[in-house]
Structure formats: C-alpha cells, structure tokens
Design goal:
The protein contains 9 helices and 15 strands. The protein has about 325 residues and is of the alpha/beta class. It has 2 domains: about 220 residues, Rossmann fold (3-Layer(aba) Sandwich), CATH 3.40.50.300; about 90 residues. The strands form 2 sheets. Strands 3-4-2-5-1-6-7-8-15 form a 9-stranded mixed sheet, sandwiched between helices. Strands 10-9-14-13-11-12 form a 6-stranded mixed sheet.
C-alpha cells in the first residue's frame, strides 16, 4: 500500500484527481488549526531552552532520524548539550517517559531508542511533545538545547528553529493529503530545508544537501562483531527494511556492489519473531532501526547496517546563529 500510494503521489493522475476534493477539506482543517495557535486561541508551551524541530512536510520516512543523530553529534562539538524528544511512534505512551539504552522498542518507539543508543543523549518520549520537553528539562537541567525528532505540525510546542527533511521523492505531486503526500504546503515557512544528496536540487530558500553513507555492519547476535560491507560481496544476501523508504536502503547496498534479494517491510515493523527462518540466504542485512527490535532468535545471519550522515557546515552555522539569536 505504501509503495502504491507513493507511486501515485509522484504524479497528478486519475487516482490523485479523484482524491483532490478531499485535499481541499484537509487544507481547510489544517489552516484553521494553525490559525488557532497563531491567534492565541490555543496555548503553546515555550521551553526555557531553545527548541529545534527536525520534521517532514511529507508523510513517510525521508532520513529524518539519521539527521537528528548527526545534529546531536555535530552540535555537541560546538559546545551544546542537546537532549531529544520524540512522539515514540507505535508505543503506547500516555505520560512522558525516559528512553534508557536497554529499553524495549515496543514501549518507547524504535527511532527514539536508536537515537539514545547511537548518541547517548537524554531522550524522552510522549505524544504531547510539550510535556516531553518539560520532563526532559526537569530531569536534565544540564541540557541547553532540545531537538524534536519530528513535530513540525505539533504547534503546542513553540520552536526556535525548524528544519524540513526531504528525500529524492521531494514533495511528490505537490498536493496535500490524501491526493498527494504533503502534510502542509511546500511554501510553508521554515528556517532550512535538507534534501538528500541524490535528489534533484529544488530552488527553495536555504536548501542544503545531506549525504548518507554506510558504516561497518554489526552482528545482531554478537554486537561487538563488525565487518565492512565489502566483505559480503559474492554472498547470498537478503536485505530487509521496515522503514518509510526501503528502496533507498536497497539501492545504497547495490551501489557498493552487493547482489541482493530484497524484502520491504511495513514502516515500524514489529519484528515479534524471525520471519526469515526458512529463507535461503548466507547474510540478512537490516537497518539499525529494525535491529533495535529485531527478534532474530540467535540467527547469526542477521547483520545491522548503520547509516551515518554528513551535514553541510553552512547548515550548522545557520542553526547556531538562530539558536544564539
């Protein structure tokens, strides 16, 4: 279904035109909601610490979580002490909750757990991001910057910097849901736009490219074991990904010379068991987002592939200027 929708959302075909009237209704509701915050009819919470939102204007994954991880690491080098908040997608969370390194992804969300494990930064989750920000600041008074993983449309939380992330699909056909992939119009104001380096460069203001690259794979049954991906060339490989854009993961693997069978899984796939016990493959490669919840059952074929992000230094300069006023 995800693949079908994105295929249709890349063009203004019959499917999109049928749904276009519903997009006008979506626009009315979206505009009224945002106006209610702008007019002060609905309250916003402003944290004592600056808040940066890293989100999407489109539905589905665009590489947002690797960007958050890269920002945490890069801003630390500039003297900031960032903490992270997130919705905790898929987890049953009613009150703010800290994400510990050995937490269950089903209870805190896969992306927050991955961010916590990769960065060591304090991470709190709650559907109410304002409540998550309060809890984060109360528990960690040492932080001086809050980074929100997603939440551009969560206007209850006031923000100082807004970044919108796009992959090679950009804004699709340019229409709002459900006729297109957009949550808000492409013309929506933001401080910067991040676009995957392989995408066509749009002529939007303050647009910066970001580059994704693979690190050494690590074995899920023995996380201390690492191997360069080049060592898997010639093996029978199954690549599986439960992310918003699995084909990006597959194409990057093919780009380094690997021959693959592929299995696209639903985004935030639960991995309650090993679905590939009977699959004939020497190696099974998955994303780190899948690895934090993968029930491989000791299957030594499972290897997680970390993704590292290179950011434009000019983007970091812009962010620091905004944060410091």
């Amino acid at each position: 279904m995800q693949q079908f929708l994105w295929r249709e959302w890349q063009r203004r075909g019959v499917f999109a035109w049928i749904l276009w009237p519903l997009s006008r209704i979506f626009w009315i509701v979206m505009t009224a909601r945002r106006a209610s915050f702008s007019a002060g009819w609905r309250r916003t919470f402003r944290s004592a610490q600056p808040v940066m939102i890293v989100g999407n204007l489109t539905v589905g994954g665009a590489g947002k979580t690797p960007v958050v991880i890269a920002l945490v690491e890069a801003l630390r080098k500039q003297g900031f002490r960032p903490g992270v908040i997130s919705r905790g997608y898929g987890a049953r969370i009613k009150a703010p909750r800290a994400v510990t390194l050995n937490a269950d992804a089903r209870e805190v969300g896969d992306e927050p757990l991955l961010i916590a494990q990769r960065t060591g930064a304090p991470v709190w989750v709650c559907p109410d991001r304002a409540a998550a920000a309060r809890a984060l600041c109360d528990a960690h008074p040492e932080i001086n910057l809050i980074i929100s993983d997603d939440g551009l449309q969560h206007y209850q939380l006031a923000r100082d910097v807004e970044l919108a992330v796009f992959d090679e699909r950009l804004g699709g056909n340019g229409w709002l849901l459900p006729a297109g992939p957009l949550r808000e119009p492409l013309a929506r104001a933001r401080d910067a736009t991040l676009v995957h380096a392989h995408a066509a460069r749009p002529s939007w203001p303050n647009t910066f490219a970001f580059q994704l690259r693979f690190g050494d794979a690590w074995q899920i049954s023995h996380p201390d074991r690492r191997r360069p991906l080049a060592e898997f060339i010639g093996a029978r490989i199954l690549a599986a990904a439960g992310i918003g854009a699995p084909e990006r993961f597959f194409s990057m693997l093919r780009g380094i010379g690997l021959t693959l069978q592929t299995q696209a899984l639903p985004d935030h796939f639960a991995w309650q068991c090993n679905p590939f016990i009977k699959v004939s493959a020497d190696i099974i490669l998955v994303t780190e987002k899948d690895a934090v919840k993968c029930r491989a059952g000791g299957d030594a074929r499972f290897w997680a592939v970390p993704v590292h992000t290179t950011l434009d230094p000019r983007l970091l300069t812009l962010i620091m200027e905004k944060i410091r006023g």
